[in-house]
Amino acid sequence: MSENKSGNQVALITGGGSGIGAAVARRLLDAGYRVAVTGRGEERLTAFAEELGRPGELLTIAGDTAVYDDVRSAVGATLQEFGRLDAVVANAGFATHDTVAEGDPAGWTDMVLTNVLGPALLIRASVDALKETRGRIVLVGSVAGFVHTPGNIYGATKWAVTGLAENTRRQVTEWGVGVTLIAPGRTETPFWDSYGSLPPGHLLTADQIADSVVWAMCRPAGVDVNTVVVRPVGQPV
Q1: Could you tell me if residue 237 is inside a domain?
Q2: What CATH number is attached to the domain comprising 199?
Q3: Predicted confidence (pLDDT) per residue in 145-197, tens digit
């Protein structure tokens, strides 16, 4: 893709109704993309569309990123509405903020399915369309997928995303499809709502992470930026 965007480009973002996903959607709309966003909460998606003035370039699709029928339907709806697909951003994810030795297993299945299975399903559902456009796959991982934290199950899911990104790249690069892993450090988003408070120290904003996502997506054709780790200054690990 060239750095000068036209109105042709189409992106699909999972978990696009708030936080990093919503920030990426705004940036891409400003860059001339047509954008589809998915999320479990129809009300949140509706509020996001209304916040932006319900632009014709935005499509909202309710569904679960860990359910393959929902993911295929989202890809199909995007293709039907906009006629092509140039990029997917696997952003949906959450943390239970507990540990393997002391946590509550009740929440782990949903977290693992959303954080690990969800990106894999999006890749599978979209890869044929991305082959046609020689498009891009962006996986939103985490610094937690590069460092070890005692008992951290969320971190283990993000280690899986780190591996999925490179394993995917090694397969799809021969088809002209690029793959980028964006690994944010501590970022002020609804991710922390279930934690009860924001972590101490300086935090990045969702818009700052979105800048990195869009920068990687908008590299010239033939340039594949593979891993971008973005920490706030002052975060040591």
Answers
A1: no
A2: 3.40.50.720
A3: 999 999 999 999 999 999 999 999 999 999 999 999 999 999 987 776 777 77
- Structural tokens at position 143: 């610094």
Instruction: Say how far apart CA 212 and CA 230 lie, in whole Å.
Output: 8
pLDDT digits (tens, 9 = 90+) for 113-127: 999 999 999 999 999
2 occurs within a structural domain = no
- Compute the average pLDDT of residues 7-25: 93
CB–CB of 167/174 below 8 Å?
A: no
Task: Examine residue 3 and state whether it is found in any structural domain, yes or no.
Answer: no
d(CA 150, CA 127) in angstroms, rounded, equals 36
Cβ proximity of 35 and 82 under 8 Å: no
If one counts the domains in the chain, the total is: 1
* Residue 5 within a domain: no
Q: What range does the domain containing 75 cover?
A: 10-230
Query: Smallest Cα–Cα separation from 25: which of 2, 50, 48?
Result: 48
Known catalytic residue at 154? yes
Reduce the DSSP state of residue 206 to 3 states and report it. helix
Secondary structure of the chain: what % helix, strand, coil (to 5)?
45, 15, 40
- The closest of 44, 27, 25, 20 to 36, measured between CA atoms, is 25
Q: Which of 33, 68, 154, 195 is catalytic?
A: 154
* pLDDT confidence bin for 6, thresholds 50/70/90: very low
